[in-house]
Amino acid sequence: MPVIRTENLQKIFNKGKKNEFSAIKGINLSIDEGEFIAITGPSGCGKSMLLNLISTIDSPTEGKIYICEKEISKMSDNEKATLRRKIFGFVFQQFNLINSLTILENVAMPMRLENLNKRAAEERARYLINQVGLEGKENNKISEISGGQMQRVAIARALANNPKIILADEPTGNLDSKSGVQIIEILNDLNKSGITLIIVTHDLNIANTARRIIKIKDGEIVEG
Amino acid sequence: MIDIALKNLFRNKTRNALTILGIAIGVALLLSLVSISEGMNKMISSFGEGMVGIITVLPEGKSLFTSTGGQLSRNFVDDMKNFEGVDYVIPYYGILLPDMTSYAMGVPVDKVGEMVGEKIKIKDGRMIDEGDKDERVAIIGSTYSNYKNTNTGDKINILGKDFEVIGKLEEGNSGAGDIMVPIDALQEISKTDKLTVIFVRVSDVERTEEIAEDIKSTLGVEAETSKDLVRKFSDMSSQIGFMAYVVGGISALIGGIGIANTMFMNVSERRREIGIMKAIGATKNMILKQFLQEAIILGLIGGITGIILSFFGIYVLSLMIPFVAMTLNLIFIGLLFSLGLSTIFSVYPAYAAAKVDAIVALKYE
């Protein structure tokens, strides 16, 4: 059963105006549970946009997205937020951690948003921080750790609510090659444990670690 | 997530401290004015009760509140004694002291207790009695004593002459801010035999209005009953009460603008953070609640600081104005005011935060 399915997905900016621009042009996609997919393509081709649409952070102009066979255009903002909390885990190129909070607080945040009490959320957060190899750094501020460590924190945060799908947008884009390899290893292990993994990357070495590669050009799937 | 809200408030310590100070000053100002208004009401109530059955006689067109010095002939005292229904008459001579806040009240030595129509209680020393007729002695009110740091045994200078303090009134007397001296001694140093006011005690309280009218029409003077005085006092008190609301309103507006400004700056600076929160699953309501919590904590701290400040302010006021005191009611008003203020003025900034578009915010640096 596909966990993600899109039908004729389109994202058009300035629709009907002189400067109309189609970022995503009728994408049909089906991703099964447990898959490891790499979405590749040149810069500006629409791969991050596709990820944003799938994750419900952005809304398509036309077309349908099914998450676990539920069509999301009919969902309210709150239902979409619930999907992002429960179904998805996010790993961004810019890490997108909250700098004013500690590592522990950042990882615990999705669980706190799920109304888990502080103690239980932090207990699980400690476990996840250990899992990504950052034990002992729980109370460090984000500014006190390296880029590779920040991305590990982001992965720990993504795993907070036991997501079905991890969406990683250029997860190694801001890392040195050694840290990049480590991050991909962690993500690979997560996929082996059954989590569906979708990585957006322009790095072919990383894309080749995936079991399926979807190539995008000018907002359209050209391969995969 | 109160812990996160508290942590966020520490991110901009100076800005938030200034906002708290703004709220605190507003609360302290409001509470001080309300305490004056409440004190006035208590004084009116106490004064009104004490003045039942007493007619205040003044020259035509004068008011008890503006009366000072000699303005009535002593002959009126005898004229009034002869009115039907009059029990006794108390001549009074008073002068405003140079500090402009206290009165020296010259009272007949045999009628000190009846002077203000209430049971005067002495806390320290003794009451003026008939043996003090020509003596330069004084009894001081509790507020005067505190404010001027004067006690029994000390000397008070009135018009260049020393008066010995022989007694101090208990707190709660309506003459708390003033000095009582024998009328003859005060008139002697003022070089006058005229009176400021004449108080007339009627034998039948029910006939007070009727006798007042009689005195007024026969002698051509002002004759006010306790009802007239309470009404005039109440008008004054209402004006102060109104001022309290106006000042409270202005301080609310200033404090509120401060809160709104701080919250808008917080929202603007944390735009990216809001985007991250939304991306990982925070709903609009969660964001709204987070910012409201922060504003309410600001308001609460501001309110508590304001209440502490007003404790000092009201203490200083109580040294000068009788019946002014910090009450539980004022603490409640202060908390309600600050919490209401912070909630109302942060709704829009919090709503603006909740409406932030995650996609736009994530690109925000």
TrEMBL record, chain A:
One of its GO terms (cellular component) is plasma membrane. The lineage of its organism: Archaea, Candidatus Altarchaeota, Candidatus Altiarchaeia, Candidatus Altarchaeales, Candidatus Altarchaeaceae. InterPro entries: AAA+_ATPase, ABC_transporter-like_ATP-bd, ABC_transporter-like_CS, ABC_transpr_LolD-like, MacB-like_ATP-bd, P-loop_NTPase. Residues 4-224 form the ABC transporter domain. The keyword Secreted does not apply. The keyword Transmembrane does not apply. Pfam families: ABC_tran. It comes from the Archaea. This is ABC transporter ATP-binding protein. PROSITE patterns: ABC_TRANSPORTER_1, ABC_TRANSPORTER_2. It comes from Candidatus Altarchaeum hamiconexum. GO terms for molecular function: ATP binding; ATP hydrolysis activity; transmembrane transporter activity.
